Amino acid sequence: METKQIVWEDLGVKAEMSVFAPEGGVAEMHAILHVEPCGEMFAGQLARLYAAEERLVEVPEMQGATPVMKRYFLSDATNQRPLMKDTTDCACSYIQQQPLDGSKVGVWIYLQRGTAVSTENGIVVSSHNGYRHLWQMGMCENRGDAALQTDHLLVKYEEALKQFGATLEQNCIRTWFFVRDVDTQYGGMVRARRENFEEQGLTSETHFIASTGIGGVPADPRAIIQMGTYALMGFEVEQQHYLYARTHLNPTYEYGVTFERGTCMEYGDRRHAYISGTASINNKGEVVHVGDIVGQMHRMWENVETLLAEAGTTFDDVMQIIVYLRDLADYDVVESRFKEKFPHTPYIITLAPVCRPAWLIEMECVAVKEQKNEKFRNF
Fold first, then answer.
1. What residues have CB less than 8 Å from 364, skipping those under 6 apart?
2. Residue 89: which pLDDT band, with cuts at 50, 70 and 90?
3. What does the angle CA 43 – CA 225 – CA 217 come to, to the nearest 5 degrees?
4. 262 close to 273: Cβ distance less than 8 angstroms
5. Within the chain, which residue ranges are assigned CATH 3.30.1330.40?
6. H/E stretch holding 129
C-alpha cells in the first residue's frame, strides 16, 4: 500500500490518499479531502471541494479509477444538502457530522480500478472475477420513531437484496447507523435492529454484522435514522470470519447490542479487515478512563490494534480512519496525537457523539493487506 498527500493551494484543499494496487489485480483507493475554511460560506467551500474531486482522478495513482462510494460530512445537513449536486454514479451519503478542522464540508471517497461499476435497482454494484459488491448509502425513513424507522429501513434493504438473490444474513458485510440525538434515540434503533436480526437468523448463536452506530443528523428533519450498507455476493463461507479480540473486548450481545467488532474477508490476493466503531471499553463491557480523552484514545487504539492483529493486519495496513468526537473542545489534543501516530494515513475527525455518553471518542477503519491464498479467487 502507498499513501500520498497533495495540497492544492489554489483550491485550499488537502487530499489524503491511500492506494492498494497489486500487480495485475484490482486497485483500491481511499481518499479524504479537507477544505481550508478561508472565511467562506458553504457554497464557496463546496465549489472548491468539487473542483478537488475532479483533480483527484487525474493524480497518476488514481487515473482510471471509478468512485464506488462517497460520504460527505456536513456542518448543517438540512440547509446544505439542497445546495449539493445529486451524485448518481456512485453510492453517496450526506450526514451532519461536522469536520472539526474548521470547515463546513469534507468527503471520504472509495474508488476502484479494474472493476465494472453500475447501478441496479438503486444499489451501486462493483463486479469482477465472479464477485458482486453491493453498496447502498444514505437510506432514510421519515415516518415514526427511531425503532419504526430502523425496522422500515432494514425491511426495505432486505427486499432490495432479494432482487439480487442475496440476504442480510448471508451477504451483508458492513452497516452504518447514524442516529439523530443518539443519547435518547439509540435505544430504539438497537431494539428494532435486534428484533429484525432475530427474524433474519442473526443471533448470538450465529453471527451479526460489522457496524457503526453513532450520532449523526440526516438532512431530512423528520428522519431520525440514516443507514448505509455494503454486501458481497459470490464468496465462499470460509472467506469470511469475525473479529472478537476477547482479551480486550466482550461480545456486544452481553450489553444488549447486535454487531460484530470486525469482519475479515479473505481473497486470493488480499484480505480486508472492516473494523466497527470502537471505543474505550474492556472485556467486561465497561467504559475505561471515564472523563479522560487521552486515556480513552489510547485504549481505543489498543482495542483496534488487537482486532487488526486478529485479522493478520496492523495499523500499517489501514487505508482510512474516521474519528468520532463528542466534545469539540477535545479536537486539538486528539488531532495532535492522531497526526503523530498516523502521519500518512487518511483520516477525518468529526463531531459525532458516541452511543454511550461516557464515551468521548470512537473510531472505525478499513485495512487491506496483500496475500497469496490459492484457496480463494482474487478480489
1. 212, 275, 276, 277, 278, 321, 322
2. confident
3. 30
4. yes
5. 116-234, 268-379
6. none
Residue 29 identity: M
Is residue 122 within 8 Å of 136, Cβ to Cβ?
yes
268-379: CATH number: 3.30.1330.40
CATH class of 116-234: alpha beta
Name every residue whose Cβ is closer than 8 Å to that of residue 4 and which is 6 or more positions away in sequence: 16, 17, 18, 19, 59, 61
For 296-315, write each residue's pLDDT tens digit: 999 999 999 999 999 999 99
What are 60's strand-pairing partners?
A: none
Start-to-end CA span in the chain (Å): 15
- For residue 35, give the 3-state DSSP assignment: strand
Q: Which CATH class is domain 1-114?
A: alpha beta
Strand partners, 93: 71
Helices then strands, each counted (H, E), the chain: 7, 18
pLDDT tens-digit readout, 136-147 = 999 999 999 999
Residue 196 identity: N
The DSSP H or E segment spanning 157 is helix 146-162
Cell numbers 472539526: residue: 100
Rounded CA gap, 330 and 342, in Å? 18
**Angle at Cα 297 formed by Cα 295 and Cα 301, nearest 5°?**
120
The radius of gyration of the chain from alpha carbons, rounded to an integer in Å, stands at 19
Using DSSP, state whether 79 is helix, strand or coil. Answer: helix
